[in-house]
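Next up, sample data.

:::
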Amino acid sequence: MRVTVIDYKAGNLTSVLKALRHLGADPMVTDSDLSLIQSAERIVLPGVGHFAATERLDSTGMTAAIRAAIACGVPFLGICVGMQWLYAGSSEAANQPGLAYFKESCSRFPECNQKVPHVGWNSLETSAGSRLLAGLGAGEFVYFTHSYKAPVTADTAATTKYIEPFAAAVENGNVMGVQFHPEKSGETGLKILRNFLEWKC
């Protein structure tokens, strides 16, 4: 299984690559080589940090290549900021557009007596019919670290509550995203990554 992992210089990819190799995948990393996107059997876009870093996807031509691969049915998984990039944008970097696969935008958690960012383990409430989250039990825990969140919509595959409910996972056709870090979420995270690798188009 050839998995192209996108590196847009917004975080350490080591844990993601280790998890994919553990599951038997052959991940290839690119920060600009469009041929690796064009030949990919799966695409993973991990990321941490500021949404503005996704500008590199535009400047290198990777945004257009990813959009074309998605249109051809290649399964795509965005992780953390990689999931947020699937939306129209984020208030974290108002002038930087996302892929706009989902029309909504991401926003910061509201200020209250709970700490932002949301860091640590929290539970998932999954929606029926999600292929990405198939086989998960009720209320399984995964690891989060983020200050910005996606809204709950018809495309939401799982929700989590921190201050208020937000989309912890999203799924529409061959496009999926998780706000949490499956590569740091133990057996539950590995199960989700395995579902992605075994995805039948």
About this structure: The mean pLDDT is 96. DSSP finds six helices and 13 strands in the chain.
